[in-house]
Model the fold of this input.
Amino acid sequence: MNFNMFFVKNWQFTLIIFFGMMLLGINALFNMPRGEDPPFGAPIFSIVVVYPGTNPIDMEN
Done:
């Protein structure tokens, strides 16, 4: 029997295989880890300046 003819004659089996593959694909899509906010190791520095009696504009200059 020809390989293609098996799937033509047994079309119910072909549908079950097709829907099974669809379910596996949908399951993989929903359970796949997302990369929306990947870990990002950028150096972050905080600068704190204390100078009493000045306003922020003078401090920036």
